[in-house]
Structures are given as structure tokens and as C-alpha cells.
Design brief:
The protein is an alpha/beta fold. The chain is built from seven helices and ten strands. The protein has one domain: Alpha/Beta hydrolase fold, catalytic domain (Rossmann fold, 3-Layer(aba) Sandwich). It has helices at 42-53, 79-91, 94-111, 125-136, 154-159, 177-190, 218-235, and strands at 3-12, 15-24, 26-27, 29-34, 56-61, 119-123, 141-145, 164-169, 196-200, 242-243. The strands form two sheets. It has an eight-stranded mixed β-sheet, with helices on both faces. Strands 3-10 form a two-stranded antiparallel ribbon.
């Protein structure tokens, strides 16, 4: 499938947040893809392109833009880049970040002239921000891939109105078994038939990232991908495909 891919600037008050935007000629829905701690890296762009190839308009906002613009800190295999990414994630203001992501979701819906709201898909830090975003603004769905610190966001998980889908590897060094179970308990507590929760035996943190040679798990990746695409398709099942605007 031919994709239309470009870098865009999204208005944020009197300023602008950069983002990577990719979509097919006709999109059946839209996705705000929220990065790992390393920035809008080739890995995040590749995932966005893959989702666009499946029929979605996908925007990947530069969430660190208030700290430094257009960071690309690799995939975590270099110790110095990994430490820099951790430092940025600790300095990142998640409350203000939710406002930025809400503006991004608003922009994407307007850009697509869509009746339905986007879904949010996030990885690691982005998996936590996807939860925060879904609790703060209406979305069509929320997918969190190994989001970190979610055991501390129980109230926000309960506040989300749209269907949710969570993914964790059982060998995630950032999400011990008790943390994963706490998130599972919160999802169960919601009592909503369209919610989904999955674990992947032996998979590590970042198992979805094809460019993370030390963590990528092909089997877990393909299964999580198929589940995410099915979930997204179900959220946009009633949407009418629209021509994406150049």
C-alpha cells in the first residue's frame, strides 16, 4: 500500500509541536501513537508506517518538544543514549503532556475530517501516557503496550470511558509480576466486555520493537500486532473510510 508520509507541526497555543504523520490514501480510522522514552525514533516511525499500511492515519507527536525538539536517542542499546532517555523521561511533565496529546488528537480528527475520535496506542512511557490521555479526553479506544507505572494509575484506568487493551511480557524488567497483576485487577474491576488484557510468556520490555535486537520477540510481536489491529478495526467498524487530505 502506498503511504503519504510527512513531518507536520501541530499548533499548541502560540507554539507548535512537531510530529510524524503517515497514512494511506483512504483511512478507516486514526491513531495517536505515543513514543517510548527514546523519542520519535526510526522504530516508532516504522510502527506508525505498519499501522498506516493496515489502513489508519497515524500521527507520532514529539512529546519531548518542550525540553528538546526532535530527539532520537536510539533504541536503548547504547548506555549513554539510554541514560539520556531516562533523564528526559524523568523531566517530562506528564500533566502538560496530556494537554499536548489532547491537542494532537483534536488535530488528527480535524485533519481527517472524521466523526470518530482517534484511538491512542502507546509504548513504555507512551503506554502510560495513553492511559492518561484516554482518561482526560474522549477517544475511540486505547492500547497500552507495556506501559510503565500503571499500578499507580488505577483511578485513571477506572476513569477511561472507551474500551482498553493492555499488553505485557511476563519477563518485563520494568513491570514485575505484581505490577502486571495490579493492572489486570484494575481492568477486571472496570467490568467492561470490550476491554482486553494480554500477557506474553517470556517476553521482555520492548518486545514489540523490531529494531531492539536485545528485546524483540517475533512471536509476541505478531500476536500483539494481530490483537491490536483487530481491536482497532472493531473500534472503527462503523466508520466510513474518507480520503486523507494531503
Amino acid at each position: 500500500m502506498d503511504l503519504l508520509s510527512t513531518n507536520v507541526s501541530i499548533p499548541i497555543g502560540s507554539d507548535r509541536m512537531d510530529a510524524y504523520f503517515t497514512r494511506p490514501a483512504q483511512a478507516s480510522g486514526s491513531i495517536v501513537l505515543i513514543q517510548e522514552i527514546f523519542g520519535v525514533t526510526p522504530a516508532m516511525r516504522s510502527i506508525a508506517d505498519d499501522l498506516a499500511g493496515a489502513g489508519y492515519a497515524v500521527v507520532v507527536p514529539d512529546i519531548y518538544w518542550r525540553l528538546a525538539r526532535n530527539l532520537d536517542l536510539g533504541n536503548g542499546e547504547d548506555a549513554n543514549e539510554r541514560q539520556a532517555a531516562v533523564d528526559y523521561s524523568l523531566r517530562y511533565d506528564e500533566v502538560t503532556g496530556v494537554l499536548d496529546l489532547t491537542a494532537c488528537a483534536d488535530w488528527l480528527q480535524a485533519e481527517q475530517a472524521a466523526e470518530q475520535r482517534p484511538i491512542a496506542v502507546g509504548f513504555c512511557l507512551g503506554g502510560r501516557m495513553a492511559v492518561r490521555l484516554a482518561a482526560a479526553t474522549p477517544l475511540s479506544g486505547m492500547i497500552s503496550m507495556y506501559g510503565v507505572g500503571l499500578n499507580k494509575l488505577g483511578d485513571l484506568i477506572q476513569a477511561i470511558r472507551c474500551p482498553v487493551q493492555f499488553h505485557f511480557g511476563t519477563n518485563d524488567n520494568h513491570n514485575p509480576v505484581e505490577v502486571i497483576q495490579a493492572v489486570r485487577d484494575e481492568v477486571t474491576k472496570r467490568g467492561r466486555a470490550n476491554d482486553e488484557f494480554y500477557t506474553y510468556e517470556g517476553a521482555e520490555h520492548a518486545f514489540f520493537n523490531r529494531l531492539r535486537a536485545d528485546r524483540f520477540n517475533p512471536g509476541a510481536h505478531e500476536l500483539a500486532r494481530s490483537r491490536a489491529l483487530r481491536f482497532a478495526a472493531s473500534r472503527f467498524a462503523e466508520a466510513v473510510p474518507r480520503d486523507s487530505r494531503a
